[in-house]
Each structure stands twice: as C-alpha cells, then as structure tokens.
C-alpha cells in the first residue's frame, strides 16, 4: 500500500488491485477505520429491499473466552448485536443489527476444530468452521457427515441458524441440525451472571429444539458437536426423462434413493433424476463432484452472460432465453454437472467415489486471475432472486401439476429459470427443531433474473409470482430462512406449531432483545412490516400487489389475478388496451 504514494507505480498497483479484487469472495463487512463505522451486506451485495446495513463496530473473537468478554461488555452497555460470518451467504437481512450503533460479532476466526472422537464418531468444532473444513477434516479421520448443503461456502453456525439442508428422506433427513448432538451458546445475562450466560445443550435438553435453528436471535453459538459416520462411497447416475409423470414420481423417487434429488426444467418438459446411493467401499471409482455452477468463471465471461441476459430481458425476447437455456442444459448434461470419474474427466455413469468428494463443492471460493463466483458483484456477475420453499410430500404432486398447467398456457415462462439450471428439488424430513421442517417435504429452489433497476419488471413476471404464491399460500409451503424475498415470510411463522415455544426460549435467552432486529421481529410475528407497500414493490417481492402501482403500469404491468391459482395477485403484462379497464 506504500506504493500508492509513488506516481510511477500507480498503474502497476491498479492492475494488482484489479486482479486481487477478483480472488476469493469479497469481505461482507467493510469498515471505514479499523473495525469501526462498518457496513455489512450479503455475498450478493444486496438484501431483498436493497438497503444497506450499518454497525458501529465489528469484533473478531478468536476463542470462546474472548467471545464471552466481548459479549459481557456489550450486554452491560445494552448494545444491539448480531453474529456475522466470514461469508454472509444468506439473502434476507438476518445479519443486520438494529440501528446504526450495533456490534457485529464475526465468527471468521472462531473456526477451530476442537475434537474428533473417531471411536464415538463425533466431531466438536467452533461455529465459524466452514462446511468445506468440516467435510475435509472428517474425511481425514475416515469419517463422513452424511447430509449437507451442496455449497462449501457456509459456516456451521450460519447453516444451522437458517435450517440448511441437503437432500434425503432417509435416516433423520437432510437437515444438518438433525445430526447435532450438542451445542454451546453464549447469550446475554444479568449483572449476577457477569452479563453473559453460557449454556451447553444436548439432545433431550428442554431448549435444544429451539437452539438447533435459531435465526441468530438466541445469542452466539460458540461450538457444536456433530454425529458422524464411517466414510462411505456413493454411486451417482443422472437420468433424464420427460416431466409428464414428475408429480407421480416425486414422492416415491425420494424413498428409493438415499441422496435423491431432481432438477426440473419445466419449459423443456424435462426432469433429471439423481440416482444416488451408498455402495460398498470396495466398489472401484474415485469420482469427484466439482459443480460447474460453483466453479470460478472468468470475469469477462460473467460480464457478457449478464449483458446478454439484460438484453434479452430488455427486448422481451423469450425465444432467445429458451434457446440459450437449451444450450446450457445440454452442456450441463453432457458434462454431468461437473461430476467426473477421476479428478478431470467424465467418461460415463455411474460415477462412484467417496462421499467427501461428492457431497459439496465450491472451487470458486479459491478464484484468482480475473475469475470469480458466478454471483460476484465486483464483476458484472449474475444478479438474481431466489425463491426457495418446501412443500409437504403429500402436496408436492398437486403443486407440480399446477405449475405444469401454467406452462401449458405459457410454454416459455420458465426458460429464464432454466438459465439458472432449472428448479432444484430436494428432500427434507420433519424435524424436532421448533423452526425446522414441520413435515416430510420437497424443497424447491428457484433462481431467476433480478434487474439492477428495482422498477423494471422481468419476463413472465406474472408466472413467476404465481408460482411463488401458489407454493406459499395455496400449498402452505415453508420458506427457507436463509433465502427468499420478503413476501415469502408473510405469516410464515404461523406455519410452525412450536413457534410459541421458540419465542418463550428467546425471552429467556435474550431478555433485553439485544440479538433481535426489526427484521427478526417481523419474521417471528412480533412486529408488522415483513412486506412493504410502495410503488413497484411486487416486482421485488417486497409485497403482493393489491394496486396497479405496486407493479409497473407505465411499462404495461398491472395487478391481476393468477391464471391457475385465482387467489394469486400478480403483475401481468397487459397488451390490449381493453384489459386496462378490466378492473372488476
Ligand atoms: C451458493 C449458495 C448455495 C447454497 N446452498 C444451499 C444448500 O444446498 N442448502 C441449503 O439449505 N442452503 C443453501 N444455501 C443457503 C445457506 O445455507 C444459508 O444462507 C446459510 O445460512 C448461509 O450460511 P452463512 O455461514 O453464510 O451464514 P450467514 O448468512 O452469515 O448467517 C446466517 C444467520 O445465522 C446467524 N449466525 C451465523 N453464525 C452464528 C453463530 N455462530 N451463532 C448464532 N447465530 C449465527 C447470523 O446472525 C444470521 O442470522 C446456499 C447459499 C448460497 C449462497
Ligand atoms: C463512516 O463511514 C462513512 C462512509 O461509509 C463516512 O461517510 C463517515 O464519515 C464515517 N464516519 C466516521 C465517524 O468515521
Ligand atoms: C435420529 O434422531 C434420533 C433422536 O434424536 C436419534 O436417536 C438417532 O440416533 C438419530 N439417527 C441418526 C441416523 O442420526
Ligand atoms: C414421456 O415419457 C413416457 C415414458 O416414460 C411416455 O409414455 C410419454 O409418452 C412421454 N410423454 C411425452 C409428452 O413425450
Ligand atoms: C466388497 O465388500 C463386501 C462386504 O462389504 C464383500 O462381501 C465383497 O466380497 C467385497 N468385494 C470385493 C470385490 O472385494
């Protein structure tokens, strides 16, 4: 940085900065001076409402002892707090402390492996440990954590707090918190406790079901103990079929294969079934999953992909999107989405390999040389919304059929989603966690274009909105706590039968509400305002439209009823003048 002063080297420095800026994902926390006057955002650089969050200070404890003293001081001063992680990969505003004067407690350096007990098959780790570390360290000891999200870039504290999962209907399901044996949580306390209370909770303890999925409002999880298994091998085959009987297949397929999931391309009328099971360790194969979606992508390429997508949106050129989607899908299928039989080449199914090499990936975390993760905001990368919800296994068929009816009416409506690799369907099981899944369910992950301009509607705006409302309101789906747009959380808390129990525990653990914010109060039903009614609000999912102004009337988008789900209210492009007067 000294170089900055020299004029002759400034060009050189610029180049250096440009390259450096494209390496690993950007720090989500930025401070104007050393650890004070900070802003925090998520890894996409934008919360659903596009606001910026501020905090007066960030602290980086490196041990539980340091964490305790930081929290004691802050509690004594009745300071608002939130836990931040080195990634901040959640989409909603969970990480923002209330007001501008809050304290962020980062788990970036609270990332030590504490103990692996090979005999008992347990692992005790600090909460800032990443999924990648967890998987690698377990494998070194000959152990495996069976079901996890597919993306390395999450911390154990963050993924537990939002109820993150992989895919299975077997054993205790795919949620990481359902393999938690113990956790230690540091919460605010009274003067008599020295202003902090450290609680060690284990399976069977009264509050364990609250602490397993806590949205960060009970205090800071300092360490957790997980249940592992002996490392095993899996055999994976992707099988492509048409989607005519997807609804009939969805429940049984989930029971047939331990790691089953389905990628659905509704406009292409295709479903890709992941046939994925354990096999004996002596089955030959050293397969690797290096997901193409999570590989480093050259910044220039990202920029041109985005520019093309913006152009197609601008021209409302659905055929262009459909053609691109087909090309991308066939490329992904030909390359098995990034599976290889050894480290490099895909030569055919099945791909057999050790679990730790197949469950999750994320090589873009190590990006360098002008490449980045697809959504990196420093290059003109992908910018999208993610609508992610789980629908009871018994209702998934009807939901799928309703979406298929919409596609019959508007065949090209999902081409835009297919540019983001379609709808990922994964299995989850009912959990004892108060804010965990209430029933065995299918989780649908839908990613779609988000304009840089919040007032710009997207292609097939109405269909995407209708699918979202179908799921959440007709089928009572539960939104993923770490994803989604505001409207998904409207009334969501009422879908949890033990929500009240959760709130009681919150009262005890954080009596002063220091870890609560407007957003967490809103999603927990303690405050109104999850949705925000204003001009154009429905376009960003900040509201469900009730007036035309919530859409984009100047651009021809009006608030209308759904096509299949008549209770849906969606922003529909009205081309004929007659329809504009059709306000029944
Ligand atoms: C590319 C990508 C892929 C993903 N894949 C999956 C997937 O396969 N399955 C899935 O279910 N989800 C997936 N997600 C979503 C992800 O699981 C959640 O968004 C997760 O919460 C992010 O973890 P994080 O470590 O970044 O936590 P953050 O987003 O930083 O934090 C989440 C919340 O947890 C709280 N918190 C964090 N650490 C602690 C702690 N130690 N104590 C108390 N509270 C804490 C924070 O305050 C915040 O409220 C994915 C996200 C991305 C970006
Ligand atoms: C805090 O940072 C902002 C920019 O992010 C700056 O405008 C402001 O002056 C800073 N305040 C202090 C007290 O440093
Ligand atoms: C599932 O949960 C039950 C109860 O918490 C536990 O006894 C059991 O060991 C768990 N099973 C697995 C496979 O983790
Ligand atoms: C879909 O595949 C099934 C067989 O799996 C076949 O019977 C059916 O005709 C196909 N439908 C279409 C529309 O191609
Ligand atoms: C593989 O292991 C199984 C037991 O797990 C055994 O029955 C089988 O004979 C072994 N096969 C080979 C080829 O070693």
UniProtKB/TrEMBL annotation:
Stated family: Belongs to the oxygen-dependent FAD-linked oxidoreductase family.
Upper taxonomic lineage: Eukaryota, Viridiplantae, Streptophyta, Embryophyta, Tracheophyta
E.C. code: 1.1.3.8
Requisite cofactors: FAD
GO cellular component, one term: membrane
Enzymatic reactions: L-gulono-1,4-lactone + O2 = L-ascorbate + H2O2 + H(+)
Species of origin: Quercus lobata
Keyword annotations of the record: Ascorbate biosynthesis, FAD, Flavoprotein, Oxidoreductase, Signal
Swiss-Prot/TrEMBL GO biological process terms: L-ascorbic acid biosynthetic process
Alphabetized NCBIfam families for the sequence: pln_FAD_oxido
SUPFAM superfamilies named among the record's database cross-references: FAD-binding/transporter-associated domain-like
GO MF term list: D-arabinono-1,4-lactone oxidase activity; FAD binding; L-gulonolactone oxidase activity
Signal peptide location: 1-22
One Pfam family this sequence matches: ALO
This protein's pathway: Cofactor biosynthesis; L-ascorbate biosynthesis
Name of the featured protein: L-gulonolactone oxidase
InterPro entries: ALO_C (IPR007173), FAD-bd_PCMH (IPR016166), FAD-bd_PCMH-like_sf (IPR036318), FAD-bd_PCMH_sub2 (IPR016169), FAD-linked_Oxidoreductases_BP (IPR050432), GULLO2-like_C (IPR055154), GULO_Plant (IPR010030), Oxid_FAD_bind_N (IPR006094)
Occurrences of domain FAD-binding PCMH-type (ranges): 51-231
